Amino acid sequence: MRGLLVKSAVATALLLASALALSQARVTRPQVPLPEGPLRNVILKNCVSCHGIDDYAFHALSRERWQDLLRDRHVNHPVKAMSATDEALLLDYLAKDFGPEGTPFPRKYIPPELDSFYDDEQGRQQLDGVCTECHELDRVYETRGSLDRWRVLLLEMRARGAHLPNDPDMERLAEWLSRVQKANLFE
User: Fold this and answer.
1) Would you kindly state where each structural domain of the chain is located, as residue ranges?
2) What is the CATH number of domain 111-180?
3) Are 175 and 147 in contact (CB under 8 A)?
4) How many CB atoms lie within 10 A of CB 103?
5) Could you please report the per-residue DSSP string of 53-101?
6) Residue-level pLDDT at 62
7) Cα distance between residue 24 and residue 178, in whole Å
8) Burial of 174 by CB count in 10 Å (0-12 exposed, 13-18 middle, 19+ buried)?
9) Of 2, 70, 76, 184, whose CB neighbour count within 10 A is largest?
């Protein structure tokens, strides 16, 4: 009986370790909010049945290049033809929110495995040194998010020119923020 308990405990520990490794090896994806109004219906009707709208953030294209990309990507897919009005609405949105003056989200960011973590003083020092270059810390303290959401926000800030530390330190900052500014699941 004791041997069975030991084997069960070892198997559980191995499962937990492999789950942790898999979760840390997962590629971070952008988080694009679904727009409101008529555009929302266009996207729900034409886009999300095959892919999410997060894919848009991987590009920074002109309206014409978006049109080419959409046509090239859908040439072999049996999708319903989008009306000219819907296509114009979608292309206007893509060119405005993911246009050539934007910075595409990194194609691949695999969070490094951490062996040390920031304490409160180290986390606040990073915030003071990085975030206050562009905005007040109130914006940070008013935000709540999971580890993945903080990671995405930091990657987006880096793409906008924030002088964030190297990947392990950026990951430590995301982890610290997720502990200190975690999402309240009961709101």
Assistant:
1) 38-97, 111-180
2) 1.10.760.10
3) yes
4) 13
5) GGGGGG----HHHHHHHHHHHHTTS-PPPPPHHHHHHHHHHHHHHS-TT
6) 95
7) 15
8) buried
9) 70
- Tell me, rounded to whole angstroms, the distance of Cα 61 from its chain centroid: 19
Domains 38-97 and 111-180 share a fold: yes
Sign of the dihedral through C-alpha 41, 47, 50, 51: negative
CATH class of 38-97: mainly alpha
pLDDT of the chain, 187 residues: tens digit per residue: 666 555 554 444 444 444 444 444 466 778 888 899 999 999 988 888 788 788 888 888 999 999 998 888 887 775 567 888 999 999 999 999 999 988 888 777 788 889 999 999 999 999 888 888 889 999 888 988 888 889 888 888 887 788 887 888 989 999 999 999 887 654 4
CA-CA distance, 6 to 61, in Å (whole number)? 57
Q: Closest Cα to residue 61, out of 93, 83, 89, 37?
A: 93
